[in-house]
Amino acid sequence: MKVLVLNGINLNMFGKRDPTHYGTATLEQINTSLLELAKELRVEVECFQTNFEGEMVERIHKAHAESVGAVLINAGAWTHYSYGIRDALAILKCPVVEVHMSNIHAREEFRHHSVLAQIALGQICGFGPDSYLLALRAAVAALKN
Q: Residue 121 to residues 10, 67, 74, 87, 113: CA-CA distances in angstroms?
């Protein structure tokens, strides 16, 4: 079973960007942790990051064609306004888990709303890099049920 991990705009800057909210872990370190957990859970993980919305939509379309088992997505700021990404995710027939390093509900007002939430199986936020690991565990558990 393949789990696709999608990271959106500015998330390649983890480790450099606002350590108060995002900590010091880099995206590469998070991806390494995900790959290690994937071995333990006996799933395949592919990680993808882009700063281009259309490229994200194209990768989601490709995920549909590949029949991936589940998708974890941290869309970054796109979470709050990208109906294009939301509509692309809605095409998928697999569980989608929304992930955020910071607690988006305890931050600026505009971050409280997610256009992805209605189509996601669930949302995990506020646990720093562990949010990704919790999301992977949740996605795998959903696939087993």
A: 24, 17, 14, 15, 16
Active site residue 80: no
Q: What's the angle, vertex CA 72, arms to CA 101 and CA 16, rounded to 5? A: 35
Of 21, 81, 100, 132, the active-site residue reads 100
Known catalytic membership, residue 113: no
pLDDT tens track, the chain, 145 positions = 999 999 999 999 999 887 777 778 999 999 999 999 999 999 999 999 999 999 999 999 999 999 899 999 999 999 999 999 999 999 999 999 999 998 988 887 878 899 999 999 999 999 999 999 999 999 999 999 8
Which domains occur in the chain, in start order?
2-144 (3.40.50.9100)
The pTM score is 0.95
